[in-house]
Each structure stands twice: as structure tokens, then as C-alpha cells.
Amino acid sequence: MTDTLSKPLRLNTVSYPAALPGVALPAYDRDKVQIGVVHFGPGAFHRAHQAFYFDQLLATDPRWGICAVSLKSPGVRDALAPQDGLYTLAQLDAETTFRVVGAIREVLVAPEDPPSVFARLAAPTTRIVTLTVTEKGYTLSAEGGLDESHPDIVHDLANPREPVSAVGYLVEGLRRRHAAGLAPYAVVACDNLADNGWRLKSAVVAFAAKQDADLAAWIDAEGSFPRTMVDSITPATDDALRARVQTATGLEDAWPIQREAFTQWVVEDVLPADAPDLASVGVILTDDVRGFERAKLRLLNGVHSTLAYAGILRGHETVFEAVSDPALEALGRELMAKDIIPTLTPPRGLDLAEYADAIIARFRNPEIRHLLSQIAWDGSAKLPFRVLGTLTETLDAGRSIERLAIPLAAWMRFIALRAKAGEAITDPLAAKLTEIGAAATGDAKADVAAFLALDSVFPAKLTSNPTFVEAIEKAYADLA
Ligand code: CS2
């Protein structure tokens, strides 16, 4: 065969029926799909998780196609436009399966085309807006409310009709619906933040109140902002995945997605009656979301971050390697059993000890190459939800925080290591962290004090508590 003949077709509407046998294809007529969902932040997690649920729902209800909106970069649009929004999802397990997902019907890049985004938000057919904009995308202060000093919020409050932030877009969309006499859309936050929907609602209402008290009161009274728990380990796409997908499907995909086979989505049962029937595709709707969300965030994400920082310091590259290091596995298990579980109230039907075991088993999945560096970045935005909540409650209960101090101290050591190596730090506080990391001398008191001065990360309640400061200093010294 010549090169031309053997070059695979690019995945798109015309080519996908020719995917190799065994590849799951959209079980519906894509031409009949309407857009009923707007999603902000179509990164890997959205495409691995929510889009997969909507893809299943489309088999019975064509109203729930997705308009995916990137708030910043055109990367996803550029990859998916030539593919008509199609992409391949690899579900990694002892036997990996491949599925072409067709739920994304449109990708918009907000800064290029705000009117199209507003039109989607204001359309009567749009009933739900989902978000995966990462922790920092919620523009919240350390106290949890809208961060009015955030540059994007400062911009949006001054120019509410030309927003750049997720909160700004949500409010402008809701303002247009209110003016048109439409019901608000339900807003479903899908990031790993404690009380994600409530926090987002309070930020949206606070932002709206700055413009129009009636609008704010309407959102407050009529808006549905369920809290959620989202879960599925989604390693970043790499060339190995692209090659694997091409072999398995016979089609070229510029941006396939991979995740573990396990996936879970728990949504607070407050969605309006005309919202998509998420329960029909396995989403758990419950009034007890807090228990699930706390357990997942503190156990899975808390231990993930611990393995990331402590693992990198011990020379590991992946979660699998880190959890296969007996010292780190023991640390993860002890944190869960002795420190984290005592702060949790199990949701009905969830055995926390079994859940903790299942998490370790998922981390040990040899099919998954999940880079610790992917988890390590954005620590200043992640650690407050993953570790500081547990730690504060542990302190309040008068128990030892010796182990809980380790992930925080390891994060500080990790930042110092990267800054001294001259590597770019990925974090909303990158500039400040680079400065602190580069200046670190290894002296526990001085180094820890510089990190603890980050008041958007560490609340005064903690930094003024000598037990807290000493525990971090000790853990930092022990990691030398
Ligand atoms: C990870 C999460 O990257 C990270 O920080 O801890 O993305 C984690 O893989 C997911 O929350 C699992 O559901």
C-alpha cells in the first residue's frame, strides 16, 4: 500500500460509520440532535464525563445536544471543528473499550464570538448550563464568596455586557432570559469544590446584585444550582493515546480522551421538572449530595494531591508508581482511615472504609498512566478544598494534624523545587509562588512563613494558630 492509501480518514460525520468493529458509535441520528445544554470549559474532564452521560441520553431524547463554550483558548474548537464535534473516548480497563461521542454539536470560543454564546444562553431550548472551569474559574475568595478583586471580576463588573469570566457569562445570560420573560437555566457546577453549586450561586447572585437588585432576587428565588459530585480519573491526552485510538478505530482523531472505566455523577435533586432526565443514564439524584461530595473530595482528591506532591519529591512520575511505593501507600491509607474518615458523615449506603479501599485500587490500575504533575498544578486552588477543610475540623476536634500537615509541606517543597529549577509554575498564584519558591532556603520557619502569608489560601484562623504553624514546620523539616 502506498502512504496515501494507508493514511487513515479523519474522524468526522462522514467517516465515523466506517470505524472498526467493536467501536461504540452514537446510537442516534446526529442530524436530529438539538442543543439544550450549554457547557463552559470543554476540557478533557467534560468530554470524558458529562458529555458521555448526554451522549447516552441522546439515544432516547434528542433535545440534549451540547454547545461547548471555551472561555479562553480556541484549542478544542480547532481540534473538533474538522471532526464535526466528534471525538473518541477510551475507557481504560483490563479490556479497554472505545466509543465515538457525538453529544457536542457546536464549539464556541467566547472571546471570538460573544453574541453566539449569549444567543445560546438566552435560547428557550437551553435548559441547563454545566461548567468545568477548574477551581480557579469560580473566582471565589478564601472566604468562599465572589472575589471582587479578581481581575476578571473587576473587568466584568465594569463591563457586564462584555464578560470574560464564567460568572459574568452566567449572569449576562440570566439577565437576558429575565428580560425576555423566560425561566432561568439550571446551572450545574461540575468541578471539585465543596458545595460547588451553592458557592457558584452565591457568586452569581452577588455579581447580579451589583447591577440590578431585581435580577439578583429573581436568580436567588428561581435559580437552580444543584451541588454535585463528579468522579472519573481522566489522564491528559498524549501521543500514545492518539496512536492507540487510531489503531483501534481505524480513524484519525486529533484529540481523543481517556479515562478509567469507572465514572460517577451525583447531583442534588433540585433540578427543574423540564431538565434532562439524568437519572435515566445513571446519574444519582439525591438530597444527600454533601456526604458524597465531601467523601470524594477529601478522600480521593485529598490523597491524590498528597501522592502528587510527596510522590514527586520521592522521584515518582505517575499515580501508579506513587501508590506502589509502600511508604506512600501507607501514608495514603492512614490519612484516609485515621484523619479523613473521622471528619466525614457517610451518605446513606456508602461504607467509607470500602470506599477508601476502592480508591486505592483505582489508583493502582496498571492500565492508567496518570502523571503526578497533572494533579500537582493549581495547588493553591485545590488544597483548600482537598486538605484544609479536613485539617481545620481535625484541629477543632482537638486531634493531631501531624499527618495532614504532610501534603501542605510537600506542596511547599514541590513549589520550591520547581521554582529553583527555573520551571514555569502553573497556578493562579504562579508569580507569587515562583518568588517564594526561589527564595526558599530550606529553613523551615522562614520558608513556611512565606507560604503561610498567602492569605487567599490560608485563612487567618489557621495561620494564627501555633499548633498549625508548628505542624507544618515539622512536616517541612522532615521532608528535607
Ligand atoms: C485530580 C482529579 O487532577 C487532579 O487534581 O485529583 O482530577 C481527579 O482525577 C478527579 O477528580 C477524579 O474524579
Structure in words:
The chain has two domains: 9-287, 3-Layer(aba) Sandwich (Rossmann fold); 290-478, N-(1-d-carboxylethyl)-l-norvaline Dehydrogenase, domain 2, CATH 1.10.1040.10. It contains 21 helices and 13 strands. It has helices spanning 3-6, 44-48, 50-57, 75-80, 114-122, 151-158, 166-180, 196-209, 213-222, 239-249, 289-313, 319-323, 326-340, 352-363, 372-376, 379-396, 405-420, 430-439, 444-452, 460-463, 466-478, and strands at residues 9-10, 35-40, 65-70, 87-92, 97-101, 104-109, 128-131, 186-189, 228-231, 251-252, 257-260, 264-268, 284-286. The radius of gyration is 23 Å and the shape is globular. The structure holds D-mannonic acid. D-mannonic acid is lined by residues 192, 231-233, 300-301, 304, 374-375, 382.
What ions, cofactors and ligands are bound?
Answer: D-mannonic acid
Supply the helix-strand structural class. alpha/beta
Shape: globular
Q: Distance N terminus to C terminus?
A: 58 Å
CATH topology of the largest domain: Rossmann fold
Which CATH first-tier class of the largest domain would you pick? Alpha Beta
Count of β-strands:
13
